[in-house]
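Chapter review: from sequence to fold.
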Amino acid sequence: MPLHKFGKSDILHNQIKTYPSSSFFIYDSSIYYNNNAVEPGQNVANVNDVPVGHVSMFELNVDRAANADATAVIGVSSSLPEAAFTAGHHSLNVKDTGYIYPFVVKGVQQVGFRDMSRDIYQTAYTSGDILTGSYKMSSSATRQRYNGSHNFLTTNNTGSALKNSLSFAARLGDHYNLGVTAVGQTGANVIQIPSIFYGSEIKKGTVDLKYYMTGNVVGRLKDSRQNGALIQSEGTEGSANDGEIAGVVLYKEGFIILTGSWDLATAFDGGTSSKITDKDVDSNSIVANPQWVNFGFGANDNVTAGMNLTNGSASFSIDFAGTHKVPTMTMLTHANKGELNFSNNPTYFKADQTNLQTPITGTHLFREQELEIKNIHSASYADPSGSLHKTTYITKVGIYDEKKKLVGIASLAKPVKKTEDRDLTFKLKLDI
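The token string follows.
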């Protein structure tokens, strides 16, 4: 098989940007991702065995049943290091739960889990102990409410960790200068979206928040200027504030910070008034009309269902598009004129030449007999036939590393005819 080395211009590295859309809907202290409710399985209530509105971080243990025998152990005699059998740790810690989960044995190599602190590793476990993890990890949007007395910009709050990000983003406009005065008086509503949902950053101009009361939109926020400012539109009773900035978006960090404290509705559902009972991070109750600072209550916070409204119903939607960067490699392989026109495939030769397949041998001689190539070139007449044209059909392209080890095979959808007077270039694309 001939080998051709890639030239300097034959390998191209690129990056593809994709913008997948995401949607969260919050109702009755439940959150739904992309309008997906429960997907029941045979063994679990939800196929991935994670709460509704969450995505599985590893997508393992899909519809897997737990082992009812709590005393069963895994690989007692063969699969664990010798250190694991001291002091009976193997029989106490390594259980067959029915789920796939990682475990390591604490030993001289000091191997542990990334999310475990060094101090806990050294003090809480002894040599031979088995440390276990979990693959039933999940992620979803979360919310934190800060009231006026508990300023979220102060120390030990989420805002203190975002001060640098807010200061850096202030180059886009003064709306990022939240200030102690405004936030300290009205509080802040902080919605965090994990990066698994948006990739490298939230795409500018795609954030869309809708506040529903009894099914009707009472307010809408969009970053229509693509500068992080969430501007109200479609307000009902709060229409006087249409065009006002009610919050900001930190695109790369995945945070939505809402500070709008004006009433979006005071009466609805036939003139009935309703108050919303929200809770801050300290579990203090905050009773108010629908406002942007209580948008999304029930989104994985400490606000429970059935206690947040006196009349009617409230629901919320969060829509945005993420930015995912996919590294790609484009490889150009060439079949030049006069090359790759010979094959060891038996079909390349004329049939009924079995008597020529035996090599000629002697005391000082070893020679393979010449086999006649099958002529597949068509002619206008049966006799004489057309002149011989060495023709092959390319079906696969192999990719080799520097040590000539096969690392990949590109299969063509249909064989490509290769004649001696024909140049071919194959474009191979790999998404990493």
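Two observations follow directly from the output. The longest strand covers residues 314-335. The CA atoms of residues 390 and 428 lie 26 Å apart.
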